[in-house]
Amino acid sequence: MDMTDEFYKRLKATLDEYEKIIITTHIVPDADGLGSQISLCLALRELGKECYCVNEEALLERYDYLDPKKTILSLDEFHSKHKKFKPDLVIIVDTNKISRTGLKMSQYLSAFSNIIYIDHHPSEKVSLGVHFIDTNASATGEITGRLIKKLGLEFTKEMALALYTAILIDTNTFRYPSVTHYTHKLIAELLETGVQTTEAYNHIYGARKLKQMHLLGHILKNCQTNSTGEIAWILITKKQLDQYESDLEDTHAYINNLLVLENVKIACMFREEGRRIKLSLRSHGDIDVGEIAQELGGGGHNHSAATVFEVPPGFNQEEIIQNSLKKIEMFLKQLNAA
Ligand SMILES: [Mn+2]
How far is the CA of 18 from the centre of ligand 1 (A)? Predict the structure, then answer.
């Protein structure tokens, strides 16, 4: 949508009306969801509001450094620590679907009518005053950063580290076409608080265990491409994760390695997640992988999108992978012919 002044005015006016707020995000939250939650929560507290971040699951230990004030609580923790707290506003960040907040969380949220979304993913239906969606923003953290300024606040170092990390992770370290001069202007302001770029980078991409490094090696060694080299793919199975003592979140950025191949136009990462297979798609931005993902039942941006396949009984993973690769190849053929 837009990133005009009007957008932030409306958003500010909405927040001004409420005093008791919870902020949530999608399941298996990434640093964009978490960083947006944490910084917005700190900002709203500075304005004197009572605010908590509440997620389906507790914060993973690896993200503790982003949340020194412990703003993020699991739904269970929230219920036991703040029994009497009744939010008058719920903010969902970095997704625009309630179902993505998790099973228990969506159940809990079904009791509330005042819910707004702050997000940068395209949404099928957008209602004004409810969906604050700017698909031009590189990250929800970018929207949150501008919002905090609009609220008349200065960035604290805690807010800035959370936002810097959010944008870092969602832009593949400022490499995606979604990065604009607006992004970098905001980054400049965040760095003014004393955030150290190397430290922020190493927290999120560094500090890997040797086993995790070997998993990456194993996965990339088995990378395949189609005959023209335009489509590249990797597969990550549960068995490999166990074998290398790694978890799903460790593999988050693996797909970015495929984009350095010389002819590649579409990068695909298939990941076994329980009974489902998640397919992530990336491009350099010239090919709209969001459209491909949509045709495969998912969605996303031009350069970054995803979909999830249920594996029906009797089907095997390989069939699903080959079928979707065929569809992606068809899509590319049509584009190349046009
Ligand atoms: Mn995001």
Answer: 25
pTM of the model: 0.87
The dihedrals phi and psi of 270, each to the nearest 5 degrees, come to: -95, 130
Quickly name the fold that domain 210-337 has. Diaminopimelate Epimerase; Chain A, domain 1 (3.10.310)
- Proportion of the chain above pLDDT 70, given as a percent: 99
CATH assignment, 5-205:
3.90.1640.10
In angstroms, what is the span from residue 26 Cα to ligand 1's centroid? 10
Question: Which residues lie at CB < 5 A from ion ligand 1?
Answer: 32, 94, 140, 170
Ligand 1 centroid to Cα of residue 93, in Å, is 8
- 72 by DSSP, 3-state: which? strand
Confidence of residue 2 (pLDDT cuts 50, 70, 90): very low
The domains of the chain are located at 5-205, 210-337
Mean pLDDT, all residues of the chain: 94
Are the C-beta atoms of 270 and 277 separated by less than 8 Å? yes
- For residue 123, which phi and psi values (nearest 5 degrees)? -130, 145
Express each pLDDT in 181-220 by its tens digit.
999 999 999 999 999 999 999 999 887 889 999 999 999 9
